[in-house]
């Protein structure tokens, strides 16, 4: 029987014949629904010679433990849980997709059985004890143990459409209160141990272990603590509702320092995960601290940001760059300008952030989706100026004109490159342009006279060049097209042009009609 199932698995996963695959799928569905599926799955795991048969067994078992009608008895689910743990412990070098499927099975059983009792004992809650033996063994075993905790955290955090939302929230809240902080503490301790051992990150296993530890830390920090999770892509300036019981981890500066140190000591392939963790840490709710504690925490956070800006070797990596831009945006979304200016090294940090922003805007073709976070930071800083009561200088009158100029001039300079190389014009995205101009208008108003003077100067230069090209007999059509596009870019960036200078507005109308 196991041989027949293995043949079906190979037909399902390897064949290019659609008809053969369809027949295999049909036969395997019948197998999944058969009364003796459980025993046959165990037989496949024990005697199967291919990874595909092991995958089939793990997948079928997941379906069995997840079904809401005719659920498996508690004793059977406990046996499956124990069997899976023993199977993983004795076979640390299974195919990656098989290991992942078995870990998913363990996480599923644990979540759905979270409130199941046997002799007054919640039998599925000893998750850290379940993985201890993995963490005390080889690197491969450690990876499995850490992945189990990471997958379990993610599984419990995700709502399941096949079960009531109220049950999901009850399980998620109980897991948060009873296990999550211990798991986060364990992940930080293991990261400290790993960073202190001078791991050989060229070794695939050690690289994989560190990656899984960082994923575990991120899953803990990204947990939906109060059941109000939103789509991160829709609003990236949210607050992480860390429970009060976690205060000790954030009052201790070593936690924050751990992740900044890791960023500077690991390869760029892993550092985006570190920055993702730092984004979450920077977003912990303000009420977790009193005023003095918040000031101290912010000081350590700004010091870490300064260190990254002063040593930007990893930032050319697009993933690192994007996550770092998110981190910068969180500085203002979660803290007030009046608090930032009181940080000891604020003048140096705001200078470095301004230089980083200007350089980023000048390289407009690199990671364009990240510009939103930089403009959001400066927009929020500029909007806060009228409300700052601190006596310390905010220096925005110095740096916001530089940011405004960099944005406008870089967009004008991009016109030639876009037309020459046939690139997609970002100005054709009306929604993006409107969003960025809304942000820029707030930034530009911080030093309004300088902004207006710059816009008038750039428009006059573009208009004069355009008129000279029209009057010249040696002008090429390509040169005129480029200058027309530059004038259109100037029009989109210039505010109140029509009211301030009707002649300029008439020239713009002429260009648009051409």
UniProtKB/TrEMBL annotation:
Q: Which GO terms describe its cellular component?
A: cytoplasm; nuclear pore
Gene Ontology biological process terms, A to Z = protein export from nucleus
* Keywords annotated in UniProt: Cytoplasm, Nucleus, Protein transport, Transport
Q: Which SMART domains does the record match to this protein?
A: IBN_N
Q: List, alphabetically, the SUPFAM superfamilies matched.
A: ARM repeat (SSF48371)
Q: Which organism is it from?
A: Lates calcarifer (Barramundi)
This one is known as Exportin 7
Q: Which InterPro entries match?
A: ARM-like, ARM-type_fold, Importin-beta_N, TPR_XPO7/RBP17, XPO4/7-like
Q: Which PROSITE patterns match?
A: IMPORTIN_B_NT
**Localization of this protein:** Cytoplasm; Nucleus
């Amino acid at each position: 029987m196991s041989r027949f199932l293995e043949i079906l698995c190979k037909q399902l996963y390897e064949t290019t014949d659609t008809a053969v695959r369809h027949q295999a799928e049909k036969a395997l569905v019948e197998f999944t629904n058969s009364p003796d599926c459980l025993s046959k799955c165990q037989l496949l795991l024990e005697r199967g010679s291919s990874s595909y048969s092991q995958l089939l067994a793990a997948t079928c078992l997941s379906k069995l433990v997840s079904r809401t009608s005719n659920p498996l008895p508690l004793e059977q689910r406990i046996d499956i849980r124990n069997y899976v743990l023993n199977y993983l412990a004795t076979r640390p070098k299974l195919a990656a997709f098989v290991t992942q499927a078995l870990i998913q099975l363990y996480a599923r059983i644990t979540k759905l059985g979270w409130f199941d009792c046997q002799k007054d004992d919640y039998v599925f809650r000893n998750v850290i004890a379940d993985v201890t033996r993995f963490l005390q063994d080889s690197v491969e075993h450690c990876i499995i143990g850490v992945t189990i905790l990471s997958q379990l955290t993610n599984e419990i955090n995700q709502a399941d459409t096949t079960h009531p939302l109220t049950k999901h929230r009850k399980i998620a809240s109980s897991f948060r209160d009873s296990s999550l902080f211990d798991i986060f503490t364990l992940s930080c301790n293991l990261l400290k141990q790993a960073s202190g051992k001078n791991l050989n990150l060229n070794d695939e296993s050690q690289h994989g272990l560190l990656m899984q530890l960082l994923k575990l830390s991120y899953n803990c920090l990204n947990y939906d603590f109060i059941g109000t999770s939103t789509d991160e892509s829709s609003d990236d300036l949210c607050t992480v509702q860390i429970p009060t019981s976690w205060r000790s981890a954030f009052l201790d500066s070593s936690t924050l320092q751990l992740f900044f140190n890791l960023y500077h000591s690991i390869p760029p392939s892993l550092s985006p995960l570190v920055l993702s963790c730092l984004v979450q840490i920077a977003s912990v709710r303000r009420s977790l601290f009193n005023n003095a504690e918040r000031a101290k925490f912010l000081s350590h956070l700004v010091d870490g940001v300064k260190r990254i800006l002063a040593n930007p070797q990893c930032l050319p990596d697009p993933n690192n760059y994007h996550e770092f831009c998110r981190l910068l945006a969180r500085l203002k979304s979660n803290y007030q300008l009046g608090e930032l200016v009181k940080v000891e090294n604020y003048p140096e940090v705001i200078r470095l952030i301004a230089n980083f922003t200007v350089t980023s805007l000048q390289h407009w073709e690199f990671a364009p989706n990240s510009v939103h976070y930089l403009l959001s930071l400066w927009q929020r800083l500029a909007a806060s100026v009228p409300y700052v009561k601190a006596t310390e200088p905010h220096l925005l009158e110095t740096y916001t004109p530089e940011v405004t100029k960099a944005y406008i001039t870089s967009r004008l300079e991009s016109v030639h490159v876009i037309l020459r190389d046939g690139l997609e014009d970002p100005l054709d995205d009306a929604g993006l342009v409107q969003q960025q101009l809304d942000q820029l208008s707030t930034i530009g108003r911080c030093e309004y006279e300088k902004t207006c003077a710059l816009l008038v100067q750039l428009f006059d230069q573009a208009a004069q060049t355009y008129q000279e090209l029209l009057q010249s007999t040696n002008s090429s059509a390509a040169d005129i097209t480029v200058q027309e596009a530059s004038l259109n870019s100037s029009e989109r960036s210039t505010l109140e042009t029509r009211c301030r200078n009707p002649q300029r507005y008439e020239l713009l109308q002429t260009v648009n009609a051409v």
